[in-house]
Amino acid sequence: MTYFPKISDIKKAATTIAEVATVTPLMSSIRLSKAYDSNILLKREDLHRVRSYKIRGAFNKISSLSEKERTNGIVCASAGNHAQGVAFACNHLKIPGTIYMPSVTPKQKVEQTRLFGGEWVTIVLEGDTFDDSSKSARTFCESNKKTFIHPFDDPKVIEGQGTVGLELLDQVKEPIDYIFVAIGGGGLASGLIGVFKELSPNTKIIGVEPEGAPSMKTSIKNNRNTELSKIDKFIDGAAVQKVGDLTFEICKNGLHDMVTVAEGKVCQTILDLYNRDAIVVEPAGALTISALDAFAEEIKGKNVVCILSGSNNDITRTAEIKERALLYGQLKHYFIVRFPQRPGALKEFVAEILGPDDDITHFEYSKKSSRENAPAIVGIELKSPEDLQPLVQRMKANNFYGDYLNDKPDLFQYLV
After folding, report:
1. 375 exposed, middle or buried (CB, 10 Å; 0-12, 13-18, 19+)?
2. pLDDT over 90 percentage in the chain
3. Hey, which residues are catalytic here?
4. Is 369 exposed, middle or buried (CB count within 10 Å of its CB: 0-12, 13-18, 19+)?
5. What is the per-residue pLDDT across 189-214, written as a single tens digit (0 to 9) for each?
6. Are 342 and 377 in contact (CB under 8 A)?
């Protein structure tokens, strides 16, 4: 391995970032501790002024630049959180920056980046993914002889993120048995590995990725850094097609385990944190708590830290988050329903087909005058997953059933 983060460098980073990054709280979760019969602690990296841990690595890297590099300006690519950290650092240090963000980046993250950067940053929206945006940023950077600030694959960035680990060890009273950390590019996980390998080698570090973007897990399985051809971009803060070369080597050798979590499960975690704990997190920030179910037996009686990596969530995404959570929980189902084209057919469907707790949440229908039956797309929310099969049986028995859409993703996305 050509690079591994040293404790001495991480401690220097802690001193460097102290002027902009406050020590974030480590909070006990009574609800989660009871649910998993363990001591669950939440490291609240969502409470930074830029609302994610990314300020640590970005500021540490930019602070290390020479006067010439500062004058020439910097370039970065980011799905949002790194961009905000870079923007804040540019404004604080008075360094001009150009920030490339994917065109699908939530509006809230774009506006926050512009707010933090002020007159010192220019934002360019380009590409559908972080990787697309990064390629454009690098081309611009090279042609204009500027310094590229990588979001994760840079020693100074990794060392900055590693300061989370130093804080954790200062905050806990008992040894940490497990740390769950979200992995996008792997910078935070790499920094933690650098700290805990030397100062707490018995701590098991678990990496957590979205099911739709398992770039680190795939790379470790293949024993080489592997670029995914396609990813689900919903968990934008952790959706990269390829992790860093440095971070891959560190994580391959330093992680205890890698796990992926379904996007729908993450959405339910977001809703639970908001409704039950008054904590607002973005999808990537909910990954670690979403992974606890997979380790429920293993963590019993243990001291467990979940890092809540960020809270840059766009409220306009709430409807989609709820929808994904319901679909994952098998509480919302979409059908093509064949309605007889006669008066009273809809009334019959509501009165005799739907169960007492079933609710129609989506309905699209167009009358076809030349046909005996006309299809409608109907979304139905159930009280319990066990209500699905009786509903389908009633639909089939009364000749209303056309097709089930939930397990046909291509057709589902087109019609709903």
Report:
1. middle
2. 83
3. 54, 309
4. exposed
5. 999 999 999 999 999 999 999 999 99
6. no
Query: Largest Cα–Cα distance in the chain?
Result: 79
- The model's pTM is 0.91
| pLDDT for 32 beyond 90 | yes
> For residue 406, which amino acid is it?
N
- Give the rounded percent of residues in the chain with a pLDDT score beyond 70: 98
- pLDDT in the model for residue 231: 92
Find the distance separating the first CA and the last CA of the chain, reported in whole Å.
48
CA distance 416 to 409: 10
Q: What pLDDT digit, counting tens, does each position of 359-383 carry?
A: 999 998 876 655 677 889 999 999 9
Say if CB 77 and CB 151 are below 8 A apart.
Answer: yes
